[in-house]
């Protein structure tokens, strides 16, 4: 996994951040890593395009609130990071003219905007999706195996974790070094950084500037939890991180 040499300090501790929409907070966080790589105006446009919907927080009791990460794309939390990552992929591929093969487990393929934007880059990229044959429903399998353009699917006799392990092994396989590889899941920093944004956003809505916040994160492979870790490394005051 590629990781920043150091985590940039965030600048979102003032009261003005509490009034910023999601896409502007996303720009403030992501621009700390894209200086000299993506022009600010291009990044700001990507953020506005990707996050053109609201992210609701619902009070349960006292100061405990639930953040709904389903708005937008297809009603799944991957939309908040996958939409932004797809736009960054498209930007880099068009700007450099390079070609890349993207290996990924099946989560990213559920996102309609991700698929649409990725097929727009078919001259530059091939997306290979590995999925556990016995671990998906018939409708899910039909969805993944009937995609056209530059998207290919491979059924695996195993579980989701086996797909993830195969992707990681491919990156370490010396015999595949001649193939430019990338990934679309949480082992890609291009997905982890957008995942960190919604922790900054939540804190801006429920806490005073500089006040520590506790997060409870439903977790599978801990990708969303790592987004919180990244946010904490950037300076977001996290009092406690609980993984379910």
Give structural notes.
33% of the residues are buried. The two termini are 24 Å apart. The chain is of the alpha/beta class and 244 residues long. The chain contains 8 helices and 8 strands; from the N terminus they run ααββαβαβαβαβαβαβ. It has a single domain, classed as 3-Layer(aba) Sandwich (Rossmann fold). The strands form 3 sheets. It has a 4-stranded parallel beta sheet, covered by helices on one side. The chain has a two-stranded antiparallel ribbon with strand order 1-2. The mean pLDDT is 82. The protein is 42% helix and 17% strand. The chain is globular and about 50 Å long.
Task: Give the structure's gist in a few sentences.
The chain has 244 residues and is α/β, with parallel strands linked by helices.
List keywords for this structure.
8 strands, two-stranded antiparallel ribbon, alpha/beta, 8 helices
Side-by-side strand order of the widest sheet: 5-4-3-6
**Can you tell me the overall shape?**
globular
- The tally of helices reads 8
- Any idea of the CATH class? Alpha Beta
Structural class assignment: alpha/beta
What is the CATH topology?
A: Rossmann fold
* Number of DSSP-assigned strands: 8
Radius of gyration: 18 Å
What average pLDDT do the residues reach?
82
Please give the share of residues in helix. Answer: 40-55%
**What's the order of the H and E elements?**
HHEEHEHEHEHEHEHE
- Structural domain tally: 1
Measured distance between first and last alpha carbons? 24 Å
CATH architecture call: 3-Layer(aba) Sandwich
As residue ranges, the low-confidence spans are: none
Main β sheet profile: 4 strands, parallel
Relative strand content? 15-25%
């Amino acid at each position: 996994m590629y990781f920043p040499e150091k985590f940039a300090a965030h600048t979102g501790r003032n009261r003005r951040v509490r009034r910023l929409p999601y896409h502007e907070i996303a720009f403030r966080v992501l621009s700390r890593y894209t200086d000299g790589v993506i022009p600010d105006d291009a990044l700001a446009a990507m953020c506005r395009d990707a996050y053109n919907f609201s992210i609701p927080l619902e009070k349960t009791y006292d100061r405990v609130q639930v953040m709904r990460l389903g708005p937008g794309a297809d009603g799944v939390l991957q939309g908040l990071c996958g939409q932004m990552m797809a736009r960054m992929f498209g930007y880099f591929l068009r700007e450099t003219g390079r070609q890349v093969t993207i290996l990924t487990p099946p989560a990213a393929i559920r996102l309609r905007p991700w698929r649409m934007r990725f097929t727009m880059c078919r001259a530059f990229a091939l997306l290979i999706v590995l999925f556990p044959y016995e671990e998906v429903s018939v409708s899910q399998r039909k969805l993944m195996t009937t995609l056209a353009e530059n998207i290919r699917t491979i059924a695996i006799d195993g579980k989701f974790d086996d797909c993830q392990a195969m992707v990681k092994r491919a990156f370490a396989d010396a015999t595949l070094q001649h193939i430019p590889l990338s990934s679309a899941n949480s082992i890609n920093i291009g997905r982890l950084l957008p995942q960190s944004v919604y922790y900054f956003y939540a804190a801006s809505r429920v806490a005073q500037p500089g006040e520590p916040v506790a997060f409870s994160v439903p977790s599978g492979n801990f990708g969303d939890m790592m987004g919180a870790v990244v946010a904490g490394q950037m300076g977001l005051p996290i009092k406690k991180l609980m993984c379910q």
